[in-house]
Amino acid sequence: MTGGKGITLGRSCPPRHTGRLRPREAVLEADDCGPGTNRMRFLMLNWRDPENPEAGGAERVSLAFMRALRERGHEVFWFSNSFPGAAPAYERDGICFVRGGGKGTSVLAALRWYRRQPRFDLVIDQHHGIPWYAPWWCRTRCLAYIHEVLGPIWHVFYPGILGWIGRWQERWTHWLYRHVPFWVPSPSTRRALEAHGVRHVTWLPNGCDTPPLPRLDPKPLTPPARLIVVSRLAPNKRVDHALHALALLLQRGLQAELTVVGGGAMEQPLKELAHRMDLTHRVRFTGPLPETAKNEELRRAHFLLHSSVREGWGLNVIEANAMGTPAIVYPVDGLVDSTLDGRTGWVVAHEHPEDLAETVCRVWQNPGEYEACRRRAWERSRRFQWCEVLPRVTRWLEAQARGDSAAARAVAAEVAHLL
């Protein structure tokens, strides 16, 4: 599902302990470790777990990494916030998920639970605006995992003084964590953290669930121009900009249509906006889709539009590329990494719907440029398949758990060529 719970890897993990785990007493059975590894214990701290109704892309990729560690024979735990109707613990793919506390109390709940556990080899403190402060209470090796520096996103959700407080808090947190090693999914996030004084930041890419087409289908630029947005429908995604870009294209005489895949709090306001703009017959809202249906929508589209405030990486760009569809994106962190301007897609000059529409019109008149770009995008998507990403990231995490900095640097050097 788009933004949902499932994730597909190159090889599957057989289910274990399908019953519910008891909190505090859950113990996973031992497996043989991967080549050259010793059995270790890993803990992921994340405000959300994959079954949380608010789970999204961050939880999908986190689950993939943690499941890969489990498949290599390690014990893996995941502590997250509780939510109404949530069980205190459950097991999935051999990973023990534990829930406790809520906003403002889950750090204390995690601390209480943690003190009753055997020693962990590595704790992964995942930040979503606010951290877990684990380096000061976990008493073992710890790294910070962050998908994006929120920055301007604070102002989208908290207008006025609250947005400035959130932004100041985030910057202060990064300064506090400046000596803690960070793991990030894009060079943009690395640069933003380094600008805040963080000393040790490693870029390790996310994998993609969508396998590239075995061969590139023909996709002639014949009207209507088929545009698509695949996104959680939240204010920071600015899906309304895609609607305005569609209106501008129609005003210029280019027949176009827009498909919006995903759900969220902004779905009804976006439908109302489409109605007010007299675009109802040109816009289709599908809601969340299963992966196969989502991929088919990406496959038939001419362009993916991405107008987010900023991203950690922009995984849906790579998914579209795997389906032979290039992206037109805003010049913001994350999207400038997942899209190589003029090579695998187009990064517009300004964060404005006019620039999206202008780029669609220009490329529409240059089918040779379009075909070359989509081919390079399709070929590049192979680099970000899970079979390429997971072995490197798990080796890096194991090196972090052992305190082997030389091995960790060697793995980081291996992934540098992927961009």
Q: How would you describe the overall organization of this protein?
A:
The strands form 2 sheets. Strands 3-4-2-1-5-6-7-8 form an 8-stranded mixed β-sheet, sandwiched between helices. A 6-stranded parallel β-sheet has the order 11-10-9-12-13-14, with helices on both faces. It has helices at residues 57-71, 106-114, 153-157, 161-176, 187-195, 240-251, 267-276, 291-300, 315-322, 335-338, 353-364, 367-380, 386-402, 405-415; strands spanning 41-45, 75-80, 89-92, 95-99, 122-127, 142-146, 182-184, 201-203, 225-230, 256-261, 283-287, 303-306, 327-329, 345-347. The protein has 14 helices and 14 strands. It folds into 2 domains: 41-207 and 386-418, 3-Layer(aba) Sandwich (Rossmann fold), CATH 3.40.50.2000; 225-383, 3-Layer(aba) Sandwich (Rossmann fold), CATH 3.40.50. 47% of the residues are buried. Helix 9 packs across helix 12 (367-380). The chain has 419 residues and is α/β, with parallel strands linked by helices. It is globular.
**Gyration radius, in Å:** 22 Å
Name of the CATH superfamily of the largest domain: Glycogen Phosphorylase B
| Unreliable runs | 1-37
* Major sheet strand order: 3-4-2-1-5-6-7-8
Largest sheet entry: 8 strands, mixed
According to DSSP, the number of beta strands is: 14
CATH class of the largest domain: Alpha Beta
Spatial separation of the terminal alpha carbons: 27 Å
Number of helices: 14
